[in-house]
């Protein structure tokens, strides 16, 4: 998202501005001084209300430039290129480990983030960041099955039910390599983090069998196809299923009996961030209970902010809860190391 500044008076300044603007249009947000009133955010789409961004801008005078991505892989590739100018990004936990190992992240100054005290202990001290030096939890959640009960004739309990010919060209699934391959691994009784080549090949064959039922891969707004009735069911983010049900009460949520994918997203600051203090100020603002509550009201993902949860209406808070037995069967993604190449190869073969 390019910056736009107004200058005048000299041809030199005009030419300089034109040069900077051309650079910005190519995605380069570097060059700003550390005390500049700018914040460049890189985040998932459908994940942060514009009202929250505006409130932050109004309070601080800091201009927020907001870019989005559709997958952790896309986010990582962009940041690996370097000199992006991004001050803050949101990464799933297992990607923090990858980014730390590649020395891509700046250490946080927690004195600038006092509201971190509102985060529940169970979301801190992850394997990827044991001392919480590089990341702050933002949201957590799960990938669930959602279906339209007006269009589906059978009971849905898990992934196996979605293989039914009834769903031919009638499913929307997340465009997420680790989630969908992980679902197939769970269906086969394997870990969703398997690094075994034989198990992954079995998952690929299962996914090839499943593919004729897939109408669309969509991580940005899978609820759209569900609400419109263009698909009968799907594997979607939990919040997308909740939002779809608000618009179409026929949409129901199922926690897959084979075990669902669980995730936690976290704020991180790239090592070359030009406005690090602004990023820390933004994180602290997001962690205010009333602000975090507003985010959950619009995007009902799991919220690690314990003080914000107390402010939510009962129906919203209950929609975020997951039965203990379903959580126990779920699995968080971890860094699978060199096996990432196997996942990527399988995904490429499935998508092409």
UniProtKB/TrEMBL annotation:
Location(s), subcellular: Periplasm
Keyword vocabulary terms for this entry: Periplasm, Signal, Transport
Binding site for spermidine: 46, 94
GO MF terms held by the record: polyamine binding
Pfam families from the UniProt entry: SBP_bac_8 (PF13416)
GO biological process: polyamine transport
Signal peptide feature range: 1-24
Main location: periplasm
PANTHER family: SPERMIDINE/PUTRESCINE-BINDING PERIPLASMIC PROTEIN (PTHR30222), SPERMIDINE_PUTRESCINE-BINDING PERIPLASMIC PROTEIN (PTHR30222:SF17)
Name of the protein: Spermidine/putrescine ABC transporter substrate-binding protein
Organism: Bacillus timonensis
């Amino acid at each position: 998202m390019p910056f736009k500044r107004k200058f005048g008076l000299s041809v030199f300044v005009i030419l300089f501005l034109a040069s900077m603007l051309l650079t910005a249009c190519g995605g380069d947000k570097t060059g700003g001084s550390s005390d500049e009133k700018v914040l460049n955010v890189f985040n998932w789409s459908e994940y942060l209300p514009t009202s929250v961004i505006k409130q932050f801008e109004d309070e601080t005078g800091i201009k927020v430039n907001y870019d989005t991505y559709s997958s952790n892989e896309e986010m990582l590739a962009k940041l690996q290129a370097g000199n992006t100018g991004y001050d803050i990004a949101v990464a799933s936990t297992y990607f923090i480990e990858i980014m730390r190992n590649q020395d891509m992240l700046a250490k946080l100054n927690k004195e600038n983030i006092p509201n971190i005290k509102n985060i529940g202990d169970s979301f801190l001290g992850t394997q990827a960041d044991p001392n919480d030096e590089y990341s702050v939890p933002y949201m957590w959640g799960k990938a669930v099955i959602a279906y339209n009960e007006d269009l589906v004739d059978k009971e849905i309990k898990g992934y196996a039910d979605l293989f039914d010919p009834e769903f031919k060209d009638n499913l929307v699934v997340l465009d997420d390599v680790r989630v969908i391959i992980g679902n197939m691994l769970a269906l086969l009784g394997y870990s969703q983090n398997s690094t075994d080549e034989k198990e992954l090949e079995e998952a690929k064959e299962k996914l090839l069998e499943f593919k004729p039922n897939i109408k669309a891969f969509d991580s940005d707004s899978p609820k759209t196809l569900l609400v419109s009735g263009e698909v009968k069911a799907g594997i979607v983010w939990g919040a997308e299923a909740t939002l779809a049900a608000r618009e179409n009460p026929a949409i129901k949520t199922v926690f897959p009996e084979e075990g669902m994918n669980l995730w936690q997203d976290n704020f991180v600051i790239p090592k070359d961030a030009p406005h690090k203090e602004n990023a820390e100020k933004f994180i602290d603002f997001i962690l205010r209970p009333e602000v975090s509550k507003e985010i959950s009201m619009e995007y009902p993902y799991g919220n690690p902010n314990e003080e914000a949860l107390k402010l939510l209406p009962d129906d919203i808070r209950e929609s975020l809860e997951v039965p203990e037995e379903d959580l126990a069967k779920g699995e968080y993604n971890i860094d699978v190391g060199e096996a990432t190449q196997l996942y990527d190869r399988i995904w490429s073969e499935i998508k092409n």
